[in-house]
Amino acid sequence: MLxxxxxxQTTTLNERLADAAARCREEARTLTPGRRRDMLLRQAxxxxxxxxxxxxxxxxxxxxPT
Length: 66
Description:
Elements: H1 13-30, H2 35-58
């Protein structure tokens, strides 16, 4: 049986998503309009949406159903 490799994250999910979105936007800024640029901008938007969802899920206003 294979043993699962564990990896301890040193940064928060929010920080990693923000870094990825910034890298995608920066790379897209250097490219001419085209498929690769569109894909990078789409990934940046997805990362930003994931950040918003994570913030929403961690908000103190959410309560478990009782």
